[in-house]
Every structure is written in C-alpha cells, then in structure tokens.
Amino acid sequence: MVDNTYLGLEASANHSLALLRAATLDVAVATEVALIPGIFLSVDPEAEVRGKLTSTPGELVSVHFEMPRPARWAGLHIQMGTLDFTDRKMLGVVCRAQAPKAVTFRICLRSGQDAGFHDTILRKTVVAYAEPSIHLDVLDLAREPLIPKGSTWRELIVFFQPETMDASLLDFHVFVA
Predict the structure, then answer these.
(1) What are the φ/ψ torsions at residue 167 (nearest 5 degrees)?
(2) Which residues have C-beta within 8 Å of that of residue 3, sequence separation ≥ 6?
(3) For residues 59 and 169, what is the distance between their CA atoms, to the nearest angstrom?
(4) What is the pLDDT of residue 47?
(5) What's the pTM?
(6) Alpha-helical segments (H) within the chain
(7) Coil, helix or strand for 122?
(8) Domains of the chain
(9) CA gyration radius for the chain?
(10) Pairwise CA distance, residues 106 & 121, whole Å
(11) SS3 of 149, please?
(12) Coil, strand, or helix at residue 141?
C-alpha cells in the first residue's frame, strides 16, 4: 500500500503512478486493460494486438506489443480528475524510459468536455533506447488557447507507436505550476 502524500493539482495522477510503481503485474494486452485505479491501457479494438504489460516494484510498466496488422492507437491513460488550470502557467511531465531497440512515443493531454474531448499533444517526442533516458516536456498553458481552463475530466495519455515493440517506462511524474 502506498500512502497518498502528494499535494497539488497533480496529486491524483502522481498517486496513481506511485501505486503502479509499487505494483507487481503481468497482464495480457487487450482492447482495454485496467492496471490500477486511475491507469489503464487502451488499444485499437480493430487491431490484432497480442502482448503483455508487466510491472515490478520500483519500475512503472514495461510493454510488449505484437501487432501483425497496423493499429490506429495504443495508449496508456493516466487519469487526472478535473484539474482546473485557472491561474496556472504550465503542465509538465518527466519520464525515464528504456527500450532494447530505439522506439518513440508521444504524450497527450486530453481534456474532457460535455460534447467530447480536446487533445493537446506535448511538443517533444520521447525516445527510448538501450540506456535509460530522461525526458522532460512542458506545456505553456498561456500559449495553448484551445486547452480549456476547466474540464469535466483530464487524462495524460502515453501514445505508443501502434506496432510490434518493447519499451519500459521506468518512471513518470506530472507537475503543474
């Protein structure tokens, strides 16, 4: 059990990430897989995806995908609650990743509204390769006028390349300032 000692707007997401970091998991990939409360994997239901997700204490999650047919998406969703951006300047992420063969993935902020949602892709592409690497990206909320200040719900989504791949998210944190 991990106590929620996180403070701030991003506390919900960072607590869920801490729970996943403390978990031991070995689950088969499916169209939608709940890993822990607040974090789930969503994969294109029309794709023929096989593989698994594993987690060991101290590391967030490793993904292994086998996709004989192209998929439209494969995303790890991190729920963030309503997360009001009024009077906030930036949202950022820090992640540490590794992969046996170089792979890239993107991070997206999804803001839910009554009539659907709005996606904002963070500017930098994460590159994972043989050595653990650290990635930092920040959204300047003042320069992103399409991001609603208030939202019914928000998620950060790690969009993996929808292809056969192996990668490990060793660590991941969210901050709002």
Answers:
(1) -160, 155
(2) none
(3) 7
(4) 87
(5) 0.92
(6) 11-22
(7) coil
(8) 11-176 (2.60.120.260)
(9) 16
(10) 7
(11) coil
(12) helix
- Residue 141, burial from CB neighbour count under 10 angstroms (0-12, 13-18, 19+): buried
User: Can you list the positions of beta strands (E) in the chain?
Assistant: 25-28, 32-36, 39-43, 50-55, 61-66, 74-81, 90-98, 103-113, 116-121, 126-128, 133-140, 153-160, 165-176
Among residues 131, 108, 135, the alpha carbon closest in space to that of 119 is found at 108
**Residue type for position 112:** G
Angstrom distance (rounded) from CA 107 to CA 49: 21
User: Tens-of-pLDDT digits for all 177 residues of the chain?
Assistant: 455 454 566 888 999 999 999 999 999 998 899 999 999 999 999 888 899 999 999 999 999 999 888 889 999 999 998 888 999 999 999 999 999 999 999 999 999 988 899 999 999 999 999 999 999 999 999 999 889 988 899 999 999 988 899 999 999 999 999
Q: What is the DSSP string of 12-45?
A: HHHHHHHHHHH--EEEE--SEEEEETTEEEEE-T
